[in-house]
Model the fold of this input.
Amino acid sequence: MNHGEPGFFEDPARIRKIVIALYVLCGLLAAAGLLVHWHAHFDFEAWPAFYGIYGFLGYSFIVFSAKGLRKLIKRPEDYYDA
Amino acid sequence: MHSLPPGAILMLGAPLLPFLLEGAAARLPAPADPELRAPAPSASAARDSSLELFGQTLVPIRIDRLALVWGHVFHIAAMLGALYALRVDDRVQQTAAPIYAGSAIAAAFAGDLLTLFVYWELTAVSSVFLVWAGRSLFGERSLRAGMRYLIIQVTSGVLLLAGAVMHVADSGSLAFDHLGLVSPGTTLIFLAFGMKACFPLLHNWLQDAYPESTPSGTVFLSAFSTKLAIYALARGFAGTECLIWIGAIMTAFPIFFAVIENDLRRVLAYSLNNQLGFMVVGIGVGTELALNGTAAHAFAHILYKGLLFMSMGAVLMRTGTIKASELGGLHKSMPWTTVFCIVGALSISAMPLFSGFTTKSMIITAVGDHHLLWVFLVLVFASAGVVDHSGIKVPFFTFFAHDSGRRVKEAPLEMLIAMGITAALCVAIGIFPAPLYRILPYDIEYHAYTGGHVVGQLQLLFFAAMAFAILFRSGLYPPEVRSRNLDSDWLYRKLAPAMLRPVVAGCGAIDGAWRSARAAVATRGGALIARVCGPRGFLGGAWTTGGAVVWISVVLLGFLLAYYRH
Done:
């Protein structure tokens, strides 16, 4: 439902560039994990990309389980008013 | 000045405001209490004032470093809220908001449980008017949500009073210091605090009521009640181990609800609940670093959560809706609001250089220092959840995503200024946390910006963002749809009424049977009396003279016989 010219953030080519930049940044951060000195409380913290992988998996888990939760608890908007 | 409770100016001045502002929109920010501008005294130099009542020592004002953190940020929140609400022309809100802010401030400086109770209830009674003010937008819905809110808030106060009375009977002291879960009395107080702090299953009043208020009303609501409860827990129950687990659950469960919620201010309410969880964990750990973390996080949280609610309030005001399914592309119409919302989103996501990073990391570090492995993993997991609901979902679906075609005006100037100042504070705390660290309850050394912290947090944020990009672009991210999601309020809005209905019907039937039985007795009795005593009845009817003579003779004979014996 676009109106007129696609905006700055609506150009598909530009969106693709932003997403690729995000992937590159993630790669760089994983590499930075090799160099940085971790004041780790737990051994696994010092794995170079622990936080990245944990964040990625955690995020995906949240989204997929929320989709399941929606099946369970979604009601019509006027559920309490009806 | 010394005996005037902090917050008194706000509370006492509030009823005058509508008269001062007669005929004009509110133009005055709420006045701040000058006493609190004084530099923070050290814990040992706490200033108290006390008085005797019924043999108990009341301490209406106790000023120490723990209370001052909340005193400072409550004043800042009141001023920013007042600035945001400058154009609100509603006497109810103009009066209720300063009383609410003032009573929360006074509660934070209460040195005994009775004083705390009085201000605790005053925050409940004054804030409900902010929920009810939402009737101009949401009609009947706000009124009913406000009533549920009031019942729960007042119940919390009643539990606090009952617990305080039992505690005095046990210990002989009304003082509001460390209590701990040591007796039935303190357990009731713990529950009272827990209701206001949105413990799991006691939480739903928050998500129920806050989204039903006005744009500025929700900004005020988000600042005070729950953070007052966090303060009360930190004062009374620091180091109570069960709080670690309660807090960990609080950080985790709201994020699932936030992903699928369509009302964006309700998303923020779930997110608020999740942030309170981090503070509760800090209180449960109870070390100096953890309690400093809780205080610092409460301070930062009030600002960035207020900022997020301000930006969503501006969107609601300009577009007339706050449903994600009806918004999108607003960055073209509201660029400044977009920028401020993103600052709030980065702050709550704990992006380095923004406020959440310098405060939340203290709590997580304290958990790590205690080697609480599972709690640590839950908190980091919940941090990834924050990235979703507040970091991405709120700004993305409002200002970007698909263009909803809405072309509206930018938020009004006073709202932009309020958002701008709040955003500047969020960035300032992120870049220069030292002044905030200096006013925390304990003097300890803490450095947020270590290489490990920064890289770890950036990895968490950007990999989560990458997951969003992949899921959203592949259509796996759940779409925003108009819906109402069930939560624990279902228990008292649907289940309890449904279960009570047969009971009520049963009571009605018993009552009806009893009433008709009584009516039958009355009818029959009346008929009998009418028959006996009526005009033709044996007693009530007219007798013939002869008949009367016979009866009188019988009575006289009776007397004669009776007296003859003697």
Summary: Chain A touches chain B through 51 residues (CB under 8 Å). The mean pLDDT of chain A is 86.
